[in-house]
Design a protein that fits this description.
By secondary structure, this protein is an alpha/beta fold. It has twelve helices and ten strands. It has two domains: 4-219, 2-enoyl-CoA Hydratase, Chain A, domain 1 (Alpha-Beta Complex), CATH 3.90.226; 223-270. The protein starts with 7 loop residues before the first helix and ends in a 9-residue tail after the last helix.
Length: 279
């Protein structure tokens, strides 16, 4: 399929004419990169729309087995919203309603990640703040450099991290999330791992290798089981236990009928690697 990183219509261009979101696929792994290192990869309207479009591209590409979300450069994964570009002041003729609807695109990005049907990994090398914090935690797994710093500093500018409340509460004990939102304090990767929202912490020079190794591991699994199981995980998140168990019971029977399940069991019995078909 065409590479959206080469198509300005796919992700929007910054003032310099360079794409604000890059997209490439290698060996079953789609890498989506926010490409505004000069602004610590802060999210503009173009970035949010570009993320939404490239996630949709990954969802529709059968060759993509895993999505890695990253930020360009060494300083930041994403420093949150570009306050100079997303207050509405830069588009005074748009009106409050239009600005309100644009802000809702971030919620659509979170939902698109959860509905993707494929595992997602956040590669966090530096700052992941405000909306960038939520973006990282909307991914299934977070691999962070020892230099990574996470936080929700909206309170310090008279705002509140409304849009990232859901991914934060889904990633750590709710009162821990509330403490971070109330204080605006930043935490390092080690504390993030203790709180439960960081999957793995590695030295900075080992970050790319760790992310690639995890992505390869995930890409080698059954696409059918991965999609059905991951979808079930998110589906039962807010269900009461009886409803959740009924849903999972049905999903077990459905998954057991897939070609991948038959192949996986046959390969196990025959002591050979499985050949997944994603069906």
């Amino acid at each position: 399929m065409p590479d959206p990183s080469r198509d300005p219509a796919a992700d929007g261009e910054g003032v310099s004419g360079t794409p604000t979101v890059l997209y490439r696929v290698d060996d079953g792994v789609a890498r989506i990169t926010i490409n505004r290192p000069e602004r610590r990869n802060a999210m503009s309207w173009e970035v949010m729309r570009g993320l939404h479009r490239t996630i949709a591209a990954a969802a529709g590409d059968r060759d993509v087995k895993v999505v890695v979300l990253a930020g360009a450069g060494d300083e930041a994964f994403c420093a949150g919203a570009d306050l100079g570009k997303m207050t509405g002041a830069d588009e005074p003729d748009s009106g409050m309603l239009a600005v309100h609807e644009e802000r809702g695109v971030l919620a659509e990005v979170f939902d698109a990640l959860w509905r993707l049907g494929k595992p997602t990994v956040a590669r966090v090398q530096g700052f992941a703040l405000a909306g960038g914090f939520g973006l990282a935690l909307a991914c299934d797994l977070v691999v962070a450099s020892e230099r990574a710093r996470f936080g929700a500093p909206e309170i310090d500018v008279g705002l509140w991290p409304y849009m990232i409340t859901v991914p934060l509460m889904r990633s750590m004990p709710p009162k821990q999330a509330l403490e971070l939102m109330l204080t605006g304090r930043r935490v390092d990767a080690a504390e993030g791992q203790r709180l439960g929202f960081v999957t793995r912490v590695v030295p900075a020079d080992e970050l790319d290798a760790a992310v690639s190794d995890l992505a390869r591991t995930l890409a080698a699994k059954s696409p059918a089981a991965m999609k059905l199981g991951r979808d079930a995980f998110y589906a039962v998140w807010d269900m009461a236990a009886p409803q959740a168990l009924a849903h999972l019971h049905a999903m077990l029977s459905l998954t057991a009928q897939t070609e991948d399940a038959a192949e996986g069991i046959a390969a196990f019995l025959e002591k050979r690697p499985p050949q997944w078909q994603g069906r």
